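pls ignore typos typing on phone
zinc ion + seq
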Amino acid sequence: MTRDPRPFRWLAPVLAGGLGLFGGPVSAQSAADLPAASTDAFLHVVAHEMGHAFLREFDIPILGPEEDIADDFATIYVYLTLPDRAEAIISARARQHMADGDRPGMFSEYRSDDQRAGRSICLLYGQDPERFDAMARRFGLDGDAAGNCRDFATEAGRSWRRIIDDYRMPAGARVTEAGVDLEETPIARALTESGALDEAYALLSGIDWHSRVTLTVKPCSGSSFWSRNGRRITICDTYLLRFADQLAD
Ligand SMILES: [Zn+2]
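k done
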């Protein structure tokens, strides 16, 4: 596909001689130290928020807990779009969930973090059990549980392909409705320099959105969210800093 010539836009002008977010001169602001696994986990988060956008923008029937559906979309869509990177991305996000270890209450919209990790590992494993066998074993997925994954994940993958294929960007089509807005921070610089932002853009621009969808990474407290008003996926710097702590090499 043809890439928007300027898909990335720095929001904040660099103030010559000023002070950066972390106290250094802005003009010499360096990239934050983000382990590769943390930027990999970031890509699954981007895909998860794209899942919410996909459901809402295209009025896809939501026949189950939306957070689960968005997680499954993320896993399958990463596998379809960045197949050679899927194992690293999904493993990293699973490890990050396990590090969080939240156990929500009975009315939460989320499953426990262990279940979210297990579900994505299971789903990816089932797409190609031979290829992902070692990954599954690293996470302790074997025996009957692995058999269950081989059974249902094949069907889930096929179901998602049928849905997603109707909305994928045709090969060679010019991308006009996907963009990235960044505030100039050490996190944003690290995402750019590591190539993670290019991969995020590859994910975002793989869907034929009817109106512009924008990915923003900026200083904010919280994690990540999809906002229909403005069609924006926002990922907070603090979320990535947490990943960097949890997934240190
Ligand atoms: Zn969500």
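The two ends are 34 Å apart (CA to CA). The mean pLDDT is 90. more later
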